Hints:
Layout: E1 3-10, E2 14-22, E3 27-36, E4 40-42, E5 45-47, H1 50-68, E6 72-78, E7 84-87, H2 108-115, H3 118-125, H4 134-143, H5 148-151, E8 154-157, H6 158-167, E9 172-173, H7 174-177, E10 183-184, E11 189-190, H8 192-197, E12 208-209, E13 213-217, H9 220-226, E14 232-235, H10 240-246, E15 256-260, E16 263-270, H11 277-281, E17 285-288, E18 294-301, H12 304-315, H13 322-330, H14 352-362, H15 371-398
Parallel strand pairs: 1-6, 6-14, 9-12
Antiparallel strand pairs: 1-2, 2-3, 4-5, 7-8, 10-11, 13-14, 15-16, 16-18, 17-18
Helix pairs in contact: 2-4, 13-15
Amino acid sequence: MHKVYLAIDLGAGSGRVLAGLYDGKKINLEEVNRFENNPVEVANHWHWNINNLYDNILNGLTIAASKYGDSIVSLGIDTWGVDYALLGQDGALLNLPYQYRDVRTDQMMERAFSLVDKRTIYEKTGIQFMFFNTIFQLLSELDDNNLRIKHAENLLFIPDLIGYWLTGIMCQERSIASTSQLYNPTEKKWDYDLIKLLGLPQKLFKELSDSGSTLGKLSRLISGKTGLKNTNVISVAGHDTASAVAAIPSQLPAPAFLSSGTWSLMGIEIDKPIINSDSYNDAFTNESGANGSIRFLKNICGLWLIQECKREWSSKGIEIEYEEMASIASEIQPFRSLINPDNAAFTKSGDMVKKIQSYCRETNQKVPESNGEIIRCVYESLALRYSTVWDSLLYYATDTPPNTTCCWRRVPR
């Protein structure tokens, strides 16, 4: 009989409950429930609709219980990084979790650097600077002079929050915590000196749990709602990229990976962080992975560009399914126009098609007009950006100097 292991996998665009059926030799994956993850706007700020996500998770677990019954052994939870919830003394949410692209982090980098030197922050955390990192989100909480952070007793990242709701037990898992830019990968603990210098409440940063540890069993309430009995919840690598990399079927000492979703992440898995002048200047990041590993990688603006274009087209009554896009793009002249996906213009929501067109116009390229031209521009630009990052990774992995003549260096920046 198969043993069944459930996974709650939440991305920034969609979520799903998966079942891994293990027969002693191989694992077959079955999708139990898939659902959209759409942020909601409340009082001019963007939040995650965490209650809707949780309802869909429970629906998936209920379906799994009906389908697999007593074969279910355990479940794990992974999500995107950096976002969190603040909870009061009674364990209740103090606010809907903010969506990382919300404008509240505007100018927060400058505020952080006025308190702690930028280079010092990198030397302590090894994390590349992204406007939405937890460090800047928490600074915005202080800057708003709101009562949430003053009354908060616990900070839970999104997989930790789901785990708490399922079991009644709180934890802060290491891989998801490492995305915050408040974790020290060299010392393998929260950097309390940095936390103190920034004026953040130290009580929010607890002892960290490692991937593979048992969080606890589903609560009696959740067992009753879903029909799952005696099911353990495991603290897997809570950051979705950490879990994805853990599944790479490679025995190489430093396997390379490209994980492409809303964000694309390209890097290598190594034993120790790389934190030096080159990695600082090249904006590479060091995140904790499963079994004490380090993911040395670059965050690349990924299929977010396509998702935003699709959302815009849908609002105008034009429905293009993802499965159709490659076919549409294949009919377009190659390398007609290119963008730098990591340009700041593409980081926020709003009229992505016009942003792409404006970028091409300002860089004296042919302006993509049709849907197919937009799609091809995005796909080819992502491929060339991957080439950029791969070229840099080879330097860190093999000490091979970057190829200064390769084609991506002629792409408008």
